[in-house]
Amino acid sequence: MTGGIAKSEVGEFWGAELRRAGFDAIIVEGKAERPVYLWVHDGEASIRDATGIWGKNTKEAQETIRAELNDGHVRVAGIGPAGEKLVRFACIMNGLFDAAGRGGLGAVMGSKNLKAVVVRGHTLPELAQPDKVRALREWTLAHLESTRNFSEFGTGEAMAGFEAAGNLPVHNFRDGLFPAVTKIDARTLKETIRIGMDACFGCPVRCKKIVEVKEGHYQVDPAYGGPEYETLAALGSNCGVDDLKAISRGNELCGAYSLDTISTGAVIAFAMECFENGLLTKKDTGGLELSFGNAAATLEAIELIAHRRGIGYLLAEGVLRAAKKVGKGADAFAMQTKGLEPGMHEPRVKPGLGLGFMVNPHGADHCANLHDPGFAVEGGLGEMKSLGIIEPLPADDIGPRKVALFRLQQFKRIINDSMVVCLFLPYTIQQMADALSGATGWDTGVVEQLKVAERVLTMARLFNIREGLTADDDVLPDRFFQPKTDGVLSDKPLNREKMMKARSYYYTLMGWDPKTGVPLPEKIEELGVA
Question: What domains are there in the chain, each with its CATH number?
């Protein structure tokens, strides 16, 4: 418990608390002359001095703010030292273990001298159609079978299966085998250091791990939750680390400093491969033995990155910029698209996911994406049948039907993101539309929702073009077109020609030029985004 409320309520309920405070959104412009935080409550907003908490980690800052406001119930969305130091992959922490984790939003707050946005509200918003929302809630409670594993283990229970299928990133996505995988998966975590499960506000799934380690080299504070799959893989197998307590400690450090765990693990793995190949030496690392499997060095690298000290200053720039700085062929080890390090999933197993890594406007994101094996069986198609995908597609397929499936799944995920709804709950697109109309009274439906998603993607594409990105940026790292060194993918690289054809067909389906990816004038007019 934190201040008399469940820890999960601190972060996930932040957006709802903003509405209770009388606001739909906050736009922050310019830069404060000194560190500040924004205090929003019951229809009022004020800027308060944050000089005394600048430099503090997220837990210290949250405790100080609550004490200053004499209210243990305020919700805090803030940054730690990594955001203040403008680490390229700093995130915004909602509470202590829920992150707006990708793309460097924490650095944006840091660039504005904005330590936190703090919210408290007491006016419960009215629902336009309460019965409609209540019916959806009752349906959800009756259809939670698909979330049972999440309730028991959280994410990461299937890591052994991932390794067997080739989907587990090992040693910077280079290798396939990680014999110690069961030492770091969610099952072992449950049996060893997990002390409970937490949830987003009001959610019956309760998929969030809480871990604690009281003794030894790697003590872990349960206030920071516990590592989910992406973290277990990013700070674990991708860095060659098989110590679950060390990974959990790394998860805590990232939460305390406001670091994206995926990019943090990816940039450390990049540095480890550079070190292994002599592109970085102990002189460059300040004596740090930055080799695969070195848990202590991994944790020290997190400290250095968060505070931009020593080799951490270079790594805080992310793998794209770090590789350019290192030179000497380091770009071969830089796993990124559009500067974003990939989620911990393997395009050589999931080519549809690889297409998503290529064309997503913000880079190699695994969430607004397709995970191919789920659609390779009849039972996995679900509502895709109602959208025209009537037959399962082989996991390794990347032909026109798979591209059409990817585009629809991408739209669905954008709807989820736009409505701030969890990906794990079994809602259909129709139910998403019903939820929105029930809550707001808007007369909306499936077709309009899909059109909104298409508009979001096209606007993002136009923004990227304005900023100088082209089709040449819609590419995967060369490593994915090479086989892994061992395991089931040792003879199964991605086919570059097929992936480029898939990209061109995706452009066509989106109403973009099939070669350049530039939205056609007719599509811009249709969507009304001119």
Answer: 7-120 (3.60.9.10), 154-333 (1.10.569.10), 351-527 (1.10.599.10)
